[in-house]
UniProtKB/TrEMBL annotation, chains A, B:
Domain (Acyl-CoA dehydrogenase/oxidase N-terminal) ranges: 39-156
Top class in the EC scheme: oxidoreductase
The protein's name: 3-methylmercaptopropionyl-CoA dehydrogenase
Keyword Flavoprotein: yes
Entry similarity comment: Belongs to the acyl-CoA dehydrogenase family.
Cofactor(s) for this UniProt protein: FAD
EC number: 1.3.99.41
Species the sequence originates in: Rhodopseudomonas faecalis
Residue intervals of the Acyl-CoA oxidase/dehydrogenase middle domain: 161-268
Function: Involved in the assimilation of dimethylsulphoniopropionate (DMSP), an important compound in the fixation of carbon in marine phytoplankton, by mediating the conversion of 3-(methylthio)propanoyl-CoA (MMPA-CoA) to 3-(methylthio)acryloyl-CoA (MTA-CoA).
Keywords: FAD, Flavoprotein, Oxidoreductase
């Protein structure tokens, strides 16, 4: 079956749960015309259903081929990519000065979910280009921008991000690729990078690589890393393609999923060194990375959301068709679709509720990023930047964790058929498995949340958010709608648990940092469970007052399910954080015995 | 890296946590010599490490091939199978009257974990044979037993179980394969079966199929199903192989995992009908199935345990070798193995603790089965049968759920390498994904737990177990060992939550069965979390008094970790059961809007 973008759910999440409407009303989006949101998403949904979704299985089955340094993508992929750029999808949030459409990141975030849901391995290519655009736009010279930015924004050329080396994964500071200064102001780069997504492919004429390397006189660690732009083909003064640069794909990985997305080993310097151009200042490459980290991590979170929604749609359709057994009380001669079984209903609701919560958290991160860039009031900008920084690790880790959980439930609902590859349910699980790993493992996200987002200013960012969420809970309570069940009570418990856990971590961080770090992952889960529950409740409240949304009660039931089945775990997670550290600290006795 | 059976952990779990020592002391195992347990397990571990483990990746990469109805297994597999039967591993728990060694099921359960850990796709073949042996032994005629039992027990021939058809999976009663009575007292069977594990292969001369089919005059549903023994090759009076029977492999599945285990479509009747022999009585085939269900489900649970342990061993080794970053407070110039990071420690402990709990639950199920067969006192036998029936769905579902969770954590610890197939971590996740599905989905296990195991006699079986577990908690408290941390308190909360949830379900079952069914899955998880925690605590208590076990404190820390990080979720799970049903019941408004 194909994928259909759930436009109504997305609009409710974006405009209400994530606060786009309020931000537009407050003037932070200038003269953005909210009317176009739905139209863009409808078009994106159509493109995804018609062009991208049909290639998802094709790409998984065919994978990619490497021969003589050239990568051939799956049948139909180069053509789909050309349709993609022709339709302007690569340029949605690109700068207007360079041919982009200048639309909000929040709108592009929804599109990113749509691309991931329809064909995550395809959507990965523009994600990397987006990071390249961000780095170049923020730190590149005018000359480099004039040569490269327009073609990256249009998608005529794609971009790669090259950080990882065998000994330098999460520990970027351990990288060894080296750069030498050339007389003409350019550089020659030598070394080998691994795990380079779309490092080589046949969908565009040129590929623009962004490579981290060290200068000979650079300090050790992360303070000695510089960022270089290294085109696959050099670009002549007239913009035409020149000589082949000394950067080649020397191997591709055989992976669990994302079969259609080439993961390349890139070798530089076999022929005198790859010609590179410095981005930003020497030895300040990590700062350039930090610039783009928020958006890249958010995009991976959106992959989790998209994969979860795809898995849900497929499982729901299966559960409505597949007949096995019968509802309680029905005659033995009858055969009912398995969706009648309460246990199957629970799995489907779990899938849908988790997906919806991760979606709104991710969209809210995008809105905060937008406001941090677009608002005119410096205080508003700063607050939005703080909010975006706080939400980013949650959007990344919570969404990708639930992406895996939801995809696994999707397999489960299919029963034996779920284990058969042609069903397609297993592909979502395989594809999803990388998302908690790349762009900073989810463990690193959790540590980032505790040490860099919670810790500053006595937890100020977290207290501000909890204040806003509490107001939502008050509203749920004030609604007196019995359909909310115990939603308000569960959310209040969740926020109280979050507050206590936050305080505990703040107390431990200065002098017992290992105790705090031991609780980072359950703390992030607790955060997502409380935050997601409040956001779904706020959407349900909004839906109750809206025209034309159909049965608004379904959003109430969804929020209720999440609060009663997911947020309810908050207290246990809090206690894991605050009472579980000693056992973790004592782990060596167990693990190394 | 290869697999090493954790013999000390296994012995502690089997003898103490699972209660083998107590059962032997009570005389339920006759003159079983406990001294041989360790010797058998050491030998099994050696065979697994030397013969089976090296073929695990080979089988995954090569898979199997079907040509002209013949299945070729992976290189080295037929030879390994011959070594397997020559070493007597197929016959461990087989009846002595038919050449088996007559050893306890509990011992075979540990071996089953070892086979699954070293090579789950290989181990699956003897698992199916074991079910065939059970069915034949319990319900077959003396004539059939004399012809087939010895060769199945030795493993010279393998067995299959053929229930599933496209329209009849969990709903076995919907099957349509038909059987006609022949004049000579045999039957002719026609139809197509799917998902038949090792339905065809090249490791033995003959395969003995056990097939469910309907007689022409059979009642509808499960009451009209008969069980037939259908050999691939007919057997002559002198025991030699005769004509090829009319049952053929017409297709194999391309699966997410278990690549080396053929999953066959079997076609019967293209040449006049497969000659079959009735097992048990006509129309009583389902009763024969129920006979073997406990053991088959337990064995799948043990696959979950084995896969979890294999994933853990691999992740632990990686975490000790892979250097990234450094411990808090270390110099930036230093690079530490990632096991120093508290978040990695947490993941490893989670893997180990979950595995250990699932292991003991599974072994305890095997001990209960043994006692139900072996004890002389009818009351003891009956109580043990009730205990085995209660534990079986938990052993199956909890162990296979955690098998997937642990395998996924194993991938996560490997970072980007975890997504690369050659690392091997991903294979465990792919292989594990079928275990919550086959032999009764975990949803069906949960429903079985609630409706058939909890419900009878006002919950008597559950209350008896909670009583025993409470005694363990009392002992933990009485130990006054500060290393237990809040273990006793957490376990007591867990048991209280289990008791309340059980009572709530018992109240709802008669008149609001859907409310009870909606909570079945979280109830099973709650049960496993409380039960597993108590069992690990009992092992820690035992270890503290034992000589020669090394640092016993590690078992205390492990029990503590489980109680503080897993059992702590009990109250939330209870509330999901008792407060979450309304949202599930209201699901249609959400799902079908």
């Amino acid at each position: 079956m194909t994928y259909r973008a759930p436009i109504n759910d997305m609009l409710l999440a974006l405009n209400h749960g994530a606060g786009l409407n309020a931000a537009v009303a407050a003037g932070h989006y200038g003269n953005y015309d909210s009317e176009i949101t739905a139209a863009v998403l409808e078009e994106a949904g159509r493109f995804a259903s018609e062009v991208l979704a049909p290639l998802n299985r094709v790409g998984d089955s065919n994978g990619i081929k490497l021969k003589d340094g050239k990568v051939t993508t799956s049948p139909g992929w180069p053509d789909a990519y050309q349709r993609w750029i022709a339709a302007g999808w690569n340029a949605v949030s690109g700068a207007e000065a360079y041919g982009g459409q200048g639309l909000p990141l929040a709108l592009n975030a929804v599109c990113t979910e749509i691309w991931a849901a329809s064909n995550v391995a395809f959507g990965l290519c523009p994600l990397l280009t987006l990071s390249a655009i961000e780095a170049l736009d923020a730190h590149g010279s005018e000359e480099l921008k004039n040569i490269y930015l327009e073609k990256l924004i249009s998608g005529e050329w794609t971009g790669t991000m090259q950080l990882t080396e065998p000994q330098a994964g999460s520990d970027v500071g351990a990288l060894r690729a080296r750069a030498e200064r050339a007389d003409d102001g350019s550089y020659r780069v030598f070394g080998t990078k691994i795990f380079i997504t779309y490092g080589e492919h046949d969908m565009t004429d040129n590929i623009v690589h962004f490579v981290l390397a060290r200068l000979p006189d650079a300090p050790a660690g992360t303070k000695g890393i510089s960022l270089f732009l290294i085109p696959k083909f050099l670009v002549n003064a007239d913009g035409s393609l020149g000589a082949r640069n000394d950067i080649y794909c020397s191997g591709i990985e055989h992976k669990l999923g994302m079969h259609a997305a080439p993961t390349c080993t890139m070798t530089m310097g076999d022929n005198g060194g790859a010609i590179g151009y410095l981005i930003g200042e020497e030895n300040r490459g990590m700062q350039c990375m930090f610039t783009m980290m928020n958006q890249a991590r958010l995009c991976v979170g959106l992959e989790g959301v998209g994969l979860a929604d795809r898995a849900y749609q497929q499982a729901l359709a299966f559960a409505q068709e597949r007949k096995q057994g019968r509802a309680v009380g029905e005659k033995p001669s009858k055969s009912d679709p398995i969706i009648v079984h309460p246990d199957v209903k629970r799995m489907l609701l779990q899938m849908r509720a988790m997906t919806a919560a991760a979606r709104t958290i991710s969209y809210a991160t995008a809105v905060a990023l937008d406001v941090s860039f677009r608002a005119s009031d410096p205080a508003v900008k700063a607050a939005a930047a703080t909010r975006a920084a706080l939400l980013t690790p949650i959007a990344k880790a919570f969404s990708t964790d639930i992406g895996n959980e939801v995809a696994s439930l999707g397999v489960q609902i299919h029963g034996g058929m779920g284990f058969i590859e042609e069903t397609g349910a297993a592909q979502h699980l395989r594809d999803a498995r990388i998302t908690p790993i790349y762009e900073g493992t989810n463990g690193i996200q959790a540590i980032d949340l505790v040490t860099r987002k919670l810790a500053p200013n006595g937890g100020e960012a977290v207290w501000a958010l909890i204040g806003e969420l509490t107001a939502i809970v008050d509203e749920v309570e004030a609604s007196n709608d019995p359909a909310f069940g115990s939603t308000a009570a569960k959310l209040r418990e969740g926020l109280a648990a979050l507050e206590r856990a936050s305080n505990w971590l703040l107390q431990r961080l200065p002098n017992q940092p290992n105790d705090a770090l031991a609780g980072a992952t359950p703390y992030l889960r607790l955060f997502g469970s409380a935050l997601g529950g409040c956001m779904l409740a706020s959407e349900a409240l909004a839906a109750r007052t809206m025209e034309g949304i159909g049965d608004a009660q379904r959003y109430v039931t969804l929020a209720r399910f999440f609060a009663e089945n997911v947020t309810v775990q908050a207290t246990a997670l809090e206690r894991t954080v605050t009472e579980g550290a000693d056992a973790v600290t004592g782990a060596d006795a167990v693990l190394l015995a």
